[in-house]
Amino acid sequence: MGATETSPDRLIPVFDLRVTPEDLEAVAETLRSGWLTMGPRTIEFEAAFAESIGSSHAVAVSSCTAALHLAYLAAGVGPGDEVIVPSYTMAATAAAVLYAGGTPVFADIIGLEQPVIDPDHVEALITPRSKAVVAMHFGGYAAAVDHLAELCDRRGLVLIEDAAHSPMATLAGRSLGTWGLAGAFSFFSNKVLASGEGGLLATDDAKVAAFVRSRRSHAMTRGSWDRHQGAAENYDVPALGFNYRIDEPRAALLSSRLRRLPEDVTRRRELTVRYRRLLADIPGLTIPFADDAVATSSCYVMPVMLEDRSSHAELRLALREKHGVQTSLFYPAIHEFTAYRERFPNVSLPNTELAARSEVTLPLFAHMTAADQDRVVEALAEELAR
Fold first, then answer.
1. Fewest Cβ atoms nearer than 10 Å: which of 95, 134, 200, 345?
2. How many helices (H) and strands (E) does the chain have?
3. How far is Cα 191 from Cα 7, in angstroms, rounded to an integer?
4. What is the mean pLDDT of residues 128-157?
5. Confidence of residue 9 (pLDDT cuts 50, 70, 90)
């Protein structure tokens, strides 16, 4: 017989998604309705998500990448414009700048204990071609968006937030994703709020919201749901748009899961506090972020930084093969990927490169047990002691 869910030999995954009967019923009801593309459930989810983060507008799209692309376009990014982005993030943060015709300019992170974009380096990178700055909230912990907002205001730049990791995370009582012109969220399968695929752009700017709503559906002046409700059949396409629509089953699933999000994030915070206590005395580790930052984070991932980077690959293999503990990497440096190294060959970001070679992502999910955590920590301690 194979390992059971409670067996000490089962693989502990980095992420584990549970779909409840309520989730299944929400999706089944949508399928029974016969209306599967954007419609009333998408509108319902957008309103609920906007309320949950205190944003005036929320526009659901097919992915966080699509949200970033539309955010850059709404900010006016085009050929000849530079957008300052972290390299320590998912490749989409920079790729969407290229989609818009702009040039990503890579900024370093503050350091291993604070692996978010460094405002001082951002300021040093500003040129007359700079159009926007992107703050990515790593792991659901706030980047210095308060300082970056002030810097962008002072220098005439647009602030955009990559909030892919960050629903329910805050800084100074204000939701991440609401500090700049727009915030982009992800609903990918491993995210805090997951639907498999999907994303959302949040903004307080009505013109940006209208722009994104139009461009996500080929810039058509009438969508399918409008026509289904009896609006005029004729429509125009006044600009170049995209097929960035989300669908109704995903929107229904997200609405169902959003109702449990406060409970899930509370549990993630409890697990993170426990992790940090258990890991604190293990030699050879740096634990990013401060203990008091946990209470305002979404606690999307549990990252640790290895002091002995030479054992990085061997450690991860041993954790999986010997102990049944899956790990991941958040993130390789974007500027070291082939597609970016060829475009931007002279980028050097010491802190980012150090983090990319040091970080190991430990398992974390809302229904993780104390026994799971103990196994992870004991396995890590054993391997680091070799």
1. 345
2. 14, 14
3. 25
4. 98
5. confident
The verdict on whether 191 is a catalytic residue reads yes
Do residues 165 and 191 make contact, with C-beta atoms less than 8 angstroms apart? yes
pLDDT at 4 > cutoff 50: no
- C-alpha distance across the termini of the chain, in Å: 32
Q: Where are the beta strands (DSSP E) in the chain?
A: 57-61, 82-86, 103-107, 109-111, 114-117, 130-136, 158-162, 170-171, 174-175, 182-186, 199-203, 285-286, 302-306, 359-362
201, 59 Cβ separation under 8 angstroms:
yes
Does 365 have pLDDT greater than 50?
yes
Instruction: Please give the angle made by the CA atoms of 9, 13 and 14, to the nearest 5 degrees.
Output: 145
pLDDT of residue 223: 65
Residue 225 DSSP label: H
What share of the chain in percent tops pLDDT 70? 95
Out of 131, 191, 207, 322, the active site residue is 191
Find the DSSP H helices in 143-247. 145-155, 206-215, 224-228
Q: Has residue 230 got a pLDDT over 60?
A: no
Tokens of 373: 């955590």
More confident residue, 49 or 219: 49
d(CA 251, CA 179): 25
How many angstroms separate the Cα of 239 from the Cα of each of 153, 209, 216, 223, 231?
29, 16, 11, 15, 21
The pLDDT score that the predictor gives to residue 10 is 86
Nearest in space to 330 (alpha carbons), one of 280, 364, 281, 295: 364
Beta carbons within 10 angstroms of residue 261's beta carbon: 18
Query: 302 φ, ψ to 5°?
Result: -115, 95
Q: How far is CA 365 from CA 6, 294, 337, in A?
A: 15, 15, 29
User: Do residues 157 and 131 make contact, with C-beta atoms less than 8 angstroms apart?
Assistant: yes
> Quick one: how far is CA 237 from the chain centroid?
31
* pLDDT per position as a tens digit, 54-97: 999 999 999 999 999 999 999 999 999 999 999 999 999 999 99
The residue whose two tokens read 């939701």 is: 175
